[in-house]
Structures are given as structure tokens and as C-alpha cells.
Specification:
The complex is a heterodimer.
Chain A lengths: L1 E5 L2 E3 L20 E3 L1 H13 L6 E7 L6 H9 L3 E5 L9 H15 L3 E5 L10 H9 L3 E11 L2 E7 L3 E8 L2 E5 L11 H7 L4 E4 L1 H4 L7 H4 L2 E8 L7 E4 L4 H11 L4
Parallel strand pairs in A: 1-4, 1-6, 4-5, 5-11, 6-10, 7-10
Antiparallel strand pairs in A: 2-3, 7-8, 8-9
Helix pairs in contact in A: 2-5, 3-4
Chain B lengths: L2 E8 L1 E2 L2 E2 L1 H13 E8 L8 H6 L4 E4 L9 H13 L6 E5 L2 H14 L3 E9 L4 E6 L4 E7 L5 E5 L15 E4 L12 E7 L12 E5 L9 H10 L3 E4 L1 H5 L20 E5 L5 H7 L4 E6 L12 E4 L2 H13 L2
Parallel strand pairs in B: 1-4, 1-6, 4-5, 5-11, 6-10, 7-10, 13-14, 13-15, 15-16, 16-17
Antiparallel strand pairs in B: 2-3, 7-8, 8-9
Helix pairs in contact in B: 3-4, 5-8
Classes of the chains: A alpha/beta, B alpha/beta.
């Protein structure tokens, strides 16, 4: 079985974010790391593709031929990666990104495509359904458990009230929530092996995607302004000297909630 | 500049439209000159009065989609309306599980861009506001091409207010045959038990995080929530760890909440969490690390051990 896992390489979320002052898009020129949210999809993919001849292929889009995050996922056990990297992709919106990823995914002829529910930085959350529509595949989003029975996926899908048991024929696109599985840490052996695993770096032309449909020109939207959000401003911070609970009680009385 | 016709993707359950549906209809009324709802499910027509009261003059009834996951058939029905020439200037969709599926499917199918995580509309609905990076940055965006413009709106971005309209006219808009893309089917539905008010409707929320130390300590959070007649919430960390169900999660990937009072216990306040709760009117935080980011948004912050402060607080509330 061929499993494709879409992964995003993002600026370290722990570092202060930077936006390009003219285009207001996220500055992605620094070092990028594997989005934490994607580690779950990689782990799920590795667990589902554990049979003889099964394999996990990573698909990613990033500027400057960035592979740092891909190496992390390869070290976890993915077999190979396709990276689409092209200056023409700067400023792509979610739909443009989905078109590029779909074209790259088609090359891998997957039985199953896994994604996170949304990235940590852009968090639009529309890519899984956009990908499925572009690939002409069924989809199940917000999976919190996945198993395979023959050529049928059995998924527990998160809902407002609880969860639904969903069945879906493969090939299909499935987005996984954090916590679907516990991602493994790459072993030293895995890290060493990852260095020589194949990463196919492609351009927009290689994929046959029109440049008019991607990048800032293809994006049907623009950010017209950014501002620092208003700070809430911290209130009173006190160290508990055994009176912490009483202070909270007094605050609740002040609010008239008790 | 303002919008003409605005459609709202309405989620209608057995007990009626969701609160987010009412929020979207209210905002649609303020930015558009005509408002219609698009709904699916077996009982849409029964709720035409409620949808009308909040501003829809018309409701496109897709009907029951049965066991098919709604994303594909609902997007198909909307696409059929639009391709048939009946198209709005904008479509407001809820940032819910099914709302995001419909938005993604529709976007790819009609080759239309989507603006997601909308928390406000301005310039008559031709500009949208978004919060980025855990709410530290506020961005304004707009579409550059022709519509219909797809906005996916987060819960609690707008206040729901009835407009006093009569029942919406129900127009049948059945879903076309979904084909292979609509092959995902629901086999069984499970409802997780919940006591007290719903997380996104509660006026008081008590949430717990990793600082609780272990899953069994979450009982303190539930007890406190119950004493205050509020709802119990959670940080992503303890949902991922399997201590509590996902339905309890507050944050970017969970629920956005804006209660009158939010009490964060043993939650450090990662941007992931802050974006979901910093709109709360009053915030109390208890955490042993005085540098925890949660204290930057707290009105009252107690630097202390949740295992000492919470039991004392529970006792104090019980004895009142």
C-alpha cells in the first residue's frame, strides 16, 4: 500500500512570527521545521503502511528547496519525499497550494492520502477537502482513529457531540486530528538513514501546473493590512501564600457570579 | 461598497439551527441587502420560522443527505445553484467540521478562493478580519476576483440577534448524485456524555491543562465547573494525551469561547490555547510557573500549585 502524507515545513512556532512588510505574507525564508501537527499523520501513515512492500511518501511545498522538516519525517520512517519548491509559489493561497499538492500527489499514485486537519501557522483547514475534490477522491476529515479492512477505511470522525463511525473506500483523503496516534521519536539509526533517502525536488513546470493559478498572482485574495492585536493587559498577579483560593473567591464575588 | 445577496450555510440539528448559524445570519443581515440560508437535513422546513426570525427570507433546502458525509452533497447542491445562475455575492460558512468540508469542496469545485478564520467583516462585507499567531496579530484581507466570495467564520465572532422577520420561504435545492467522491458513509453515531451547559454556550468555563499532572485530577475541574454551574474545558495537551474527549478542547483547533468568566488551571497558555479563550470577559489563571504566558491575559493570576489552590477553592465554594 502506498500512503502519501502531506507535511508542512513551518517557521518555528516558538519564535516570534515575522510578516513580510509589503505583501503581509508569512516570512518563510528562515529555517523551517516539521509542523508538529503533521507528525501525527506521519505516524499514522507508518502504522498503516507496515506490511511487505508498503511505503510512506511525503509530499510538501516549501521555498528554497527546504528539506529540514522532511528529514525529520524521513527519520521517523517515511521512505521518500516529493518537495515542490519554486519562487513562483510565493504568496500562494490555500486553493493554489492544494492544486500544487494534488499534482504532486498524483505522481505517487497513493491508496491513501493523509493530512493534518490544519497547519499550525496558516491554519486555514480547507486543504484536505480541496485536495480530495481536485483528486476526485472521497474524504473523511477530523479522524481520531483509523483502521483498514481490505480496501475499506474505517474511521472514527470527530463531531460536535462525540464521534461518528465512517466507512470509506480507498483511495481516499483523510485528515487526522492531533492525538490520533502518539508520534515516535526518530531513532539515531533513523536520523542517519534519512540523510540518504530520496527527496525529489520539483518545480511548478515539472508538475504541469500553470503559473497563473499559483503564487500571489493566482491567489484570489490578499492581505491589505496587519496590525498588532490589542493587548488584553495583565491584571493582578499574586503568588499563592495559602490565600490563593480566597483571592479567587473574592474575585468571583466581585463579578457577582457567586 | 456593500454586498447584495448573502447566503449562509445553516447547520440545523434536531433542536434547531446552531448558535453559530444565528450569528452568521445576524451578520449577513448587516452586510447584505438580501439574506438566504442554505441548509441540509431531514427537518429544515420545520425550522424555517427560526431561520426567518434571524434574517433569512429564503431557505434552500438540500434535504436529507442520509448517511453520506455532508461535505460532498452539500457542496454539490450549492454548486448546482450557482452554476444555474442563482448566485450570491458572498456565502458565509461556519468554521465547523462540516462547514469546513463544504468550503473546501466548493472552493476546489468552482475554483473560488476561500478566506477562513474570519472573526469580523468590514467595508460592507468586502473586507474580513483574521487573527494570526495566537491572536497577537490582526490582519485584514479581501478577495481580488469575482465572487461568490466564500468566508469561513469562527464561532463567537458576531453576536446573534433576531431581526423579527417572518418564516423563510422554503425552496427545494436537492443535492445532485455525489458519485465516487461522496462514498464516505456514516455507519454509527456516538454521543459522548456531557453534564452541565455546552462549552460554547456557558457563561462560566473552568479549564484544565497539563499542570494537573494526571488524568484523574481532571475531576477537580469538573467539580469546580459544576459548583459554578459552568462547563469544563481543556487544553490541547491533555486532549492529545487522551485524558478528556476532544469536544472539551478550547483553542485554535478546538472551540473558541467567550464566557463571562474563564478559569484556567494548570494551563501554560500556548498561543494555540490563547486564541480560543482570550476574548473571555474575565480570566482567572492558576499556574505554578510565574512566567507562563497565560498570566499575560489574566485579570487575576495566582502563581501557585493547582493541587493546593483548587481543593481549597472547591471547599470554599461548597461551604457557601
Amino acid at each position: 500500500m502506498n500512503v502519501v502524507v502531506c507535511v508542512k515545513q513551518i517557521p518555528d512556532p516558538a519564535a516570534p512570527p515575522a510578516l513580510d512588510p509589503t505583501t503581509h505574507t508569512l516570512d518563510r525564508t528562515g529555517k523551517l521545521i516539521l509542523d508538529d501537527s503533521d507528525a501525527y499523520g506521519v505516524e499514522m501513515g507508518l502504522q498503516l503502511a507496515s506490511g511487505e512492500g508498503d511505503e510512506v511518501t511525503l509530499v510538501s511545498m516549501a521555498p528554497g528547496g527546504e528539506v529540514s522538516g522532511l528529514r525529520t519525517a524521513l527519520a521517523m520512517g517515511a521512505a521518500k519525499a516529493i518537495l515542490v519548491s519554486d519562487d513562483a509559489l510565493a504568496g500562494s493561497d490555500a486553493l493554489g497550494t492544494a492544486k500544487v499538492l494534488a499534482a504532486a500527489i498524483r505522481r505517487a499514485e497513493p491508496d491513501l492520502v493523509l493530512t493534518a486537519t490544519e497547519s499550525t501557522d496558516g491554519y486555514t483547514g480547507t486543504i484536505p477537502a480541496q485536495l480530495a475534490e481536485l483528486l476526485g477522491l472521497p474524504s473523511v476529515t477530523f479522524a481520531k482513529k483509523i483502521s483498514i479492512d481490505g480496501s475499506t477505511l474505517k474511521v472514527e470522525r470527530q463531531t460536535e457531540a462525540g464521534y461518528d463511525e465512517v466507512e470509506c473506500p480507498m483511495p481516499a483523503v483523510v485528515s487526522v486530528t492531533a492525538g490520533v496516534v502518539e508520534p515516535r521519536y526518530p531513532s539515531f539509526k533513523g536520523i542517519m538513514a534519512a540523510k540518504s533517502k530520496p527527496v525529489d525536488i520539483l518545480t511548478v513546470d515539472d508538475l504541469g501546473v500553470s503559473k497563473d493559478e499559483v503564487g500571489a498572482t493566482g491567489a484570489g485574495q490578499e492581505i491589505t493590512g496587519v496590525a498588532k492585536a490589542e493587548d488584553r493587559g495583565a491584571g493582578e498577579i499574586v503568588v499563592d501564600e495559602g490565600d490563593g483560593a480566597q483571592r479567587i473567591v473574592a474575585f468571583l464575588q466581585e463579578l457577582k457570579v457567586i | 461598497m456593500a454586498l447584495g445577496t448573502v447566503w449562509v450555510l445553516a447547520e440545523v440539528g434536531e433542536s434547531g439551527p446552531t448558535s453559530l448559524t444565528y450569528e452568521l445570519l445576524t451578520e449577513a443581515r448587516s452586510v447584505g441587502s438580501a439574506v438566504a440560508a442554505v441548509a441540509w437535513g431531514p427537518s429544515t422546513a420545520e425550522h424555517a420560522a427560526a431561520l426567518g426570525e434571524y434574517g433569512a427570507t429564503k431557505v434552500y433546502d438540500i434535504g436529507d443527505v442520509g448517511e453520506t458525509l455532508p461535505g460532498v452533497p452539500v457542496a454539490g447542491a450549492i454548486a448546482a445553484l450557482i452554476e444555474g445562475g442563482d448566485k450570491p455575492d458572498a456565502l458565509l460558512l461556519p468554521a465547523s467540521y462540516d462547514g469546513r468540508d463544504v468550503a473546501g469542496r466548493l472552493s476546489a469545485r468552482l475554483n473560488l478562493p476561500v478566506l477562513t478564520n474570519v472573526v469580523g467583516l468590514s467595508e460592507g462585507g468586502t473586507e474580513s478580519q483574521h487573527t494570526l499567531f495566537g491572536g497577537t496579530i490582526s490582519a485584514t484581507a479581501r478577495f481580488t476576483g469575482a465572487g461568490p466570495h466564500l468566508y469561513v467564520v469562527r464561532a463567537k465572532s458576531f453576536a446573534a440577534e433576531p431581526g423579527g422577520g417572518g418564516a423563510a420561504e422554503v425552496v427545494s435545492a436537492p443535492a445532485p448524485e455525489p458519485g465516487a467522491t461522496g462514498a464516505a458513509r456514516v455507519i454509527a453515531r456516538h454521543v459522548e456524555e456531557r453534564s452541565g451547559p455546552k462549552l460554547d454556550e456557558a457563561s462560566i468555563i473552568v479549564s484544565g491543562g497539563r499542570g494537573l499532572g494526571s488524568a484523574d485530577k481532571y475531576e477537580m475541574i469538573e467539580q469546580l465547573a459544576s459548583l459554578l454551574h459552568g462547563a469544563a474545558g481543556a487544553s490541547r495537551a491533555i486532549v492529545d494525551a487522551g485524558w478528556v474527549p476532544y469536544a472539551r478542547q478550547v483553542g485554535q483547533t478546538g472551540k473558541t469561547v467567550k464566557p463571562n468568566l474563564y478559569i484556567a488551571c494548570g494551563i501554560s497558555g500556548a498561543t494555540q490555547h490563547l486564541v480560543g479563550m482570550k476574548g473571555s470577559k474575565n480570566i482567572v489563571a492558576v499556574n505554578k510557573d510565574q512566567d507562563a504566558p497565560i498570566f499575560t491575559v489574566a485579570d487575576l493570576g495566582i502563581v501557585g500549585d493547582v493541587h493546593k489552590v483548587l481543593p481549597a477553592l472547591i471547599e470554599a465554594l461548597k461551604s457557601r
